[in-house]
Amino acid sequence: MSYLRTFLPWIVFAVIPSTQWQWAALAGLVIAAAVIAQQRAAGTGWDALIIETGSGLYFAVLAVIAFTDPHSGVRDYSAALSSAVLALIAGVSLLIGKPFTLGIAKRTTPREYWNLKPFIRVNAVITSVWTAAFAITAAVLGVLAHGGHGHSATALVVQIAGFVVPMVFTIRYVAIVQARAPRAPQT
């Protein structure tokens, strides 16, 4: 559920028709702000809201552009730009040593594991896969947009795959890591 909540603004933005891109950007902004407010009220730290915060900032800027100039060329590349921004956010989180998945993983992992190198390493791997998926998705969507197919069914499939592939990887990788982890002796 954490990943769905984290990426909900992007999902809503992707499913609203591109002819309504300004409303899609505004919806993304409102949802990002609502998620941040709800999570902060629940005691979630900013380290667990890296994508949400970046999402809010992105959709604020995009909404301003979209409402100021609804016919802006940005519209045609908005899907590619969205994935590129996600790749940038995820990549920067890695560069600063705070993989965005770390905050999400802390929600379901006991505190005694949070500072262990294997836990941090697993999240660096997962965040790297998300970063690569976003970057590849951005590139493919950019090519599609350049060819005039940026708002096609193919582009939607690419966007969906850009989320589903790293999500499946995350689920499977975590299961493998947990299965291989040494168990504490039972008394």
TrEMBL record:
It comes from Kitasatospora setae (strain ATCC 33774 / DSM 43861 / JCM 3304 / KCC A-0304 / NBRC 14216 / KM-6054) (Streptomyces setae). Keywords: Membrane, Transmembrane, Transmembrane helix. This is Uncharacterized protein. It comes from the Bacteria. The chain crosses the membrane at residues 20-37, 49-67, 79-97, 118-144, 156-175.
